[in-house]
Design goal:
32% of the residues lie in helices and 12% in strands. The chain is an alpha/beta fold.
């Protein structure tokens, strides 16, 4: 048996690589309607129902939900990313998963977020016929304050402050098994399993200078500076490493403000790259990674669309008013001949403070997924974990980006997962989201 990363992950958890058809998933699976009925996922569930499963059960679930017509008793040696062309990011639906929030909370420690991200993959609808669904992970790099720990809900522990040159976050990687599978191989295993599910993958990154630190061996961290060429090269190479592990999308926080654009609405901390520098960065990441399918998504966009296109972006967010179906359709028609960049529409973003009614979120999802005349003209769209799996009422997306509380009542991960999300109403909402995707995925 070849030691591919998925098999190494199973071995690290003392499991064999032999997989069994998952009848648990069979009972809970939804299918796309009409000609898309080979596209399958789990819906009408609460997140803890998939998160509390073992890693082998989760991988068996992923393989059981394959679009293929036969079951793989062992995970395939070679997995290719779903093929939607080199500019797939212009049309994609991006779903950001806060992999830190769903990490394992053992007492005051936080870890294994990539394992939780794998476990939740069966409950993410796969890509449609005409456009890709892409998972964006909220955290990859260590955060500056309290990485590896959870804190009280009122204490700062922001994902928006990162360290580079320091490997990967203790919140995300399972460091207890790195003798059997490296951090890099854990990311590769996640990407292989997501690609097998018919999903693209990416991650959020930070470009606000004072929100980035550089770790040095046996020394204190130093501030990151865009004016320092060595820092820029380090930044580029850190991102290239991740693309070579199988990620294909980078969501750039504060991208709208590159080159001091619209700084009156800038809420980040510190200097941003200037415009030519950002062009250099996106071009170099593409060139050095050798990935022709790599796409960049920029937070926010304005009517100066050529500015973002020439920056190297494929999609922007939050330009098209989401609550008006006719407006979404209008902008889809306006951009139908632009195949490499388009402004986007979103259900919610990382700054969402909650309070939106379920009915409004469901209508927004419909507008994002059906606001066009022809499916191949779909605008890029963006949503959060909360839009598929509603969070408990006393928290919200933005709060969980700024802090890392455990909601466990007994110090176990299972209790945290059960209490992080809403209960029966959230389960029914997830069913309704599943119905919407069932109509969308055959398009």
């Amino acid at each position: 048996m070849i030691d591919i990363p998925v098999n190494k992950l199973l071995k690290a958890y003392n499991e064999t690589p032999d997989l069994n058809y998952d009848y648990w998933s069979e009972k809970r699976k939804y299918r796309a309607l009409d000609g898309g009925n080979l596209k399958q996922w789990i819906s009408d569930v609460l997140p803890y129902e998939v998160l509390e499963r073992s890693i082998k059960e989760s991988i068996s679930s992923i393989v059981s939900l394959c679009e293929c017509t036969s079951f793989y008793n062992n995970f395939p040696e070679t997995i290719l990313t779903p093929d939607y062309g080199d500019t797939w990011g212009r049309f994609a639906n991006y779903i950001e998963i806060n992999n830190r929030a769903i990490a394992e909370m053992h007492g005051n420690r936080c870890s294994n977020g990539i394992i939780s991200a794998i476990k939740i993959l069966p409950a993410i609808p796969p890509s449609a016929k005409s456009w890709a669904n892409c998972i964006i992970l909220s955290q990859i790099f260590p955060n500056i304050y309290g990485d590896g720990y959870n804190k009280a809900p009122w204490e700062e522990n922001s994902i928006y402050g990162i360290k580079v040159n320091s490997g990967y976050s203790e919140n995300i990687i399972n460091f207890s098994i790195i003798d059997n599978i490296t951090p890099e191989e854990q990311f590769i295993a996640f990407n292989d399993l997501a690609h097998f599910r018919g999903l693209k993958t990416g991650f959020r990154t930070i470009i606000s200078e004072d929100q980035i630190k550089i770790a040095l061996p046996d020394k204190e961290d130093i501030p990151f500076k865009w004016e320092n060429p060595e820092h820029v090269e380090l930044y580029i190479n850190e991102h290239v490493k991740l693309i070579k592990m199988g990620f294909e999308a980078i969501f750039i926080d504060s991208a709208k403000h590159v080159g001091n654009y619209d700084m009156g609405n800038y809420t980040g901390v510190g200097r941003l790259p200037d415009y030519p520098q950002m062009q250099y960065i996106t071009n170099e990441i593409r060139k050095r990674s050798g990935s022709t399918t790599l796409c960049f998504v920029g937070e926010k966009s304005s009517e100066d669309f050529n500015r973002y296109k020439e920056m190297g972006l494929n999609a922007g967010t939050a330009f098209v008013p989401v609550d008006n179906f006719d407006t979404v359709k209008y902008w889809s028609d306006r951009f139908k001949y632009e195949r490499s960049f388009a402004p986007g529409v979103e259900v919610s973003n990382d700054n969402d403070t909650g309070g939106t009614k379920y009915e409004e979120r469901l209508q927004r999802i419909k507008n994002c997924l059906f606001g066009f005349d022809i499916p191949s003209d779909k605008l890029p769209s963006f949503m959060q974990m909360d839009d598929i799996f509603p969070l408990r009422y006393d928290t919200n997306t933005h709060h969980l980006m700024l802090s890392n509380p455990s909601y466990s009542t007994d110090g176990t991960p299972e209790s945290h997962w059960e209490n992080l999300f809403t209960k029966d109403d959230g389960k029914y909402y997830n069913h309704l989201v599943g119905e919407i995707f069932a109509y969308a995925l055959f398009l």
